[in-house]
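Final report, results section. Input specification for complex C-07:
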Amino acid sequence: MKNREIAQIFYEMGEILEIKGDNPFKIRAYYKAAQNMESLTEDIERIVQEDRLNELPGIGVKLALKIKEYVTTGKLRAYEKLKKKVPSGLIKILSVPGVGPKTAKLLYEELKIDSIEKLKKAAKEHKISQLPHLKEKTEENILRGIEIIKRGMERMPLGVALPLANEIVGALKKLPEVKEINPAGSLRRKKETIGDIDILITSTRPAKVMDVFTNLPCVSQVIAHGETKSSILTKEGIHVDVRVLNPRNYGAALQYFTGSKEHNIALRTLALKKGLKISEYGIFNKRSGKRLAGEKEEDIYKILGLSYIEPELRENQGEIEAAKANRLPKLIEESDIRGDLHIHSNWSDGSASIEKIVEAARKRGWEYVAICDHSKSLKIAGGLSDKELKEQIKEIRKLNKRLKGFRVLAGIEVDILKDGTLDYSDELLRQLDFVVAAIHSGFKQSREQITKRIVKACENRWVDVIAHPTGRLLGERAPYEVDLDKVIKVAKHTGTFLEINAYPKRLDLNDIHSRKAKEGGVKISIGTDAHTLDQLDYMTIALTAARRGWLEKKDVLNTLPVDRLLKKLKRNK
DNA sequence: GCCGTTTTCGGCCCGACTGTTTTCAGTCG
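Structure output:
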């Protein structure tokens, strides 16, 4: 799948063109194309093969030729040529907050700065302040910007940001001075990784709120403390902004600060066509300047003739067109979930007994769980021997007799071994209620080998779900090479489900792949992969990927009552 | 570079803040 590679190349070309001072609209075209490539659910190679590049938005004649060239030759001459025009270190300088293309160009031309190290040195030696239009303040800002990058400009997993944001929002909500409060930005859109946390509020006494915020226990450094906007760094090094807004503009501001940028651009373009203008202060008639709305977020969409678009969908990936046609999906809600289909107990590397898991699941309002411990080859995780698994099945059957209105499915997370065979015999797998199969070894195998292993697992009658189908660990391990298009096809054909694994570092299938699976007619099974009782809460995280993947209740296996769920499994057909 | 029942040429999202200026360019979200 070359989508990501091409996106990367277009981003970089855009950056180089920016430094060169090329036509800003041309640059925007590259960024837009890159963004489209990145979130395209279809394999670009197939689109090229079928000669359908002209269907892609933002891809015209010239970019289509470039994509074609890269897909067929693995190279892009225009990119190679462009790269020679600008030293590679210069692009890294752009990542320093406060340094844009113009400044980067000036720094390179006057001081030959082409790396962050050289930039730091020049700032410390006060060489930058000798340039026109730059003074000491700029030097300070550059040094601070470099610190910010070093300290963790890297994005954090949603699973880390969400609890932290909840903590801050919870603390501020307690103040009687705070009326409305909402996180905005990528956190509200529930992106799998978050850059910084943005919180919007309305208040009768902004100054008081700001005082409380900048003195919260999680604060390690106050970056700015103003009347209406304050910024802090938490002890974990996470940047948090709080803005106090006029209630009159709150909806428009919430819409604006939620983004995404691409969604907002598309929305504003649409507004212009209708003789309207949108800003963070409201939606206006362009000619008369009359304000039409702004207090409520929903009104912005309504006035544009759109149905309300959930924050998770705001990526300019077809949601505006769907809203126009009143064809937005009714996104799955956490309350639609009736059970968890991937939990580890203390029979392998989990910490809780099956009884305790049942108790915790019931408290969440669930009707069933599938206990899926590790299989025998995964020795490090206490994988179950054949004998132990048989015993566990017996235990679960016994337990079910005692339970009323709740069902424990005897399951397993069976390893797909390096040669593509499974870790237990079919005879043993047959005795289970529910089998998820997963790869835990041989990550470095070729795309063909890994795909073949998963395909073979799908073709096994007793495998119900492929767990964490890409094997990635956010910020730690790249996904293994796998032809997901093929896997989706085979899953559809064999009646196998694909998992959204809720483990915050996994979270795969991710949003894009989930949407792809849905489009390919494959249903999703959601499992928390919980190893402790607390981790059952990860269900919330899994739902973010599902919702961003446009999934509805009907697309997800564990929204069904248990008897209907079991009937959907190929083993029972 | 893309795009089009207002256009195949001339547009392309909007506003605030900052640092440097004395009217504005650059950067950001």
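Chain A has four domains: 2-154, 156-244, 249-324, 334-572. The mean pLDDT of chain A is 90. This concludes the modelling results for the funded period.
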